[in-house]
Predict the 3D structure of the following.
Amino acid sequence: MSLEVKNLFKSFEGKKVLSNISFKIENGQTLGVIGFSGSGKSTLLKIISGILEKDSGEIIYPKNSEIAMSFQYSALFDFLDVYDNIAFPLVERKEFRLKYTKEEISKIVKEKLKLVGLEGIENLYPSELSGGMQKRVGFARAIVTNPKIILYDEPTAGLDPVTSTMIEDYIVRLKNELNASCVVVTHQLSTIKRAVDYVIMLYQGNVVFEGSVQELLEGKNDYARQFVSASINGPMNIATR
Amino acid sequence: MFELNKTLTYQGFTLMWEEIKDFLITLGKMGCDFCSVLKYIFRLRINFAEVIEQSKRFAYDSIPISLTIVGMTSAIIVMQLAPELAKQGGADYTGMLSALVMVRELAVVMSGFAIISMVGSSFASEIASMAVTEQLNAMKVLKVDPIEFLVVPRFVAGVLFMPMIFIISATFGLICAGYVSNITADLSLLNYYTSLWHGLYVRDIFIAILKASFFGGTIALISCSCGYSTRGGAKEVGIATTKAVVWSFLAIALWDFIFASVFYL
């Protein structure tokens, strides 16, 4: 398997945010993580990516695997242009600096930009790009080290439906290109349908649904049914969000 | 009435405790950040291109305001001091006193204030904005330590370039003082510079340079550390910037006191 999370617990100032989370993703698979805002989805990604420390539990993935993350608001470095944003890890990390020449780095950056359909924008700054373009530059920066695990935090948030579809296509394309395992945190059913193989649903830090996309859409349990039907009536209490 | 007083006292103590806790937490974070900075410096993991980039900010951004503040302050002091000294028959001491005041205290402290307002505040707000827009998290995921990439070059630039700003500002301040004493007390420039020469001690200059280095490093560290630990949104960016400025002012006052006690007591 490529990524396994075992009995993960996390709390902030005594408040449980994640409770006994476990899942496995095989190589080339995409896991969708859904749930209300504040259910612990982003915290889960931050723990897998190493931004946050876990309280207990295990995160198992092959040694020396690169983990990449695409952030909800892209998190591009606003003081660098697109080229420098993408080249950032290659230039700043010693192992890549020793491995690649300047010309090779330039070639890699151009390849990755081509992969996300954004050739010729190397000299633009993040503030000069649209939301969709920023997301794609974020993707290009995330995959520049050829990661085997890619985490997406709400990749289609704030985008129009057409751009969202394009982003979903890129998620699938990048996964196939790199044979990576992906975790996609999303609220969008369209993203689940198009880009995800398997789904877990979080509610108040617990996994309340686990199954295939088909099972989610069919409403395998009450939680899935409430989420898919976007109903305010059901086991998930909106007031406690 | 008694109950109300009790409640107010309790609230007052709670608030004070919160402030003390916040102070200790901030101090602890700064200590940790300082240790990380030293770790990278000792391993010679310093991005010199970035140091030069940050040094430009020290030089271009703060030199004009530093020269203005030091020049004006020295002019104001000499404007009041020189005529009084002339009345007492001590006009010849104007240059010497100016040199003592300027080199030992005024130039370095005033330059420090200029650096805090121009560079320190911008370091804090810039890094705080990066923190709240997840750019620091992105750096961590890309396995680049923000302390190494952002804080170390700013700290090194502060330590190296603050003394230069001090030297330029002090020289400018002494020149301004010379012209003002010439105008207000009719002291010739030759007399002023001769007197000034007698008040300039190599020891004082070295102590001031060392003090400027400490100031530069402290301002950079406090500003970066306040920005680095920011969580939240725009409001917190503002709070972090204010905190960086206030803490830097206090730290400079404290360093100044320590230097005066160690070298001149």
Q: What stands out?
A: The radius of gyration of chain A is 18 Å. Chain A touches chain B through 20 residues (CB under 8 Å). The first helix of chain A runs from residue 41 to 49. Strands of chain A lie at 3-12, 15-25, 30-35, 56-60, 67-70, 149-153, 181-185, 198-203, 206-212.
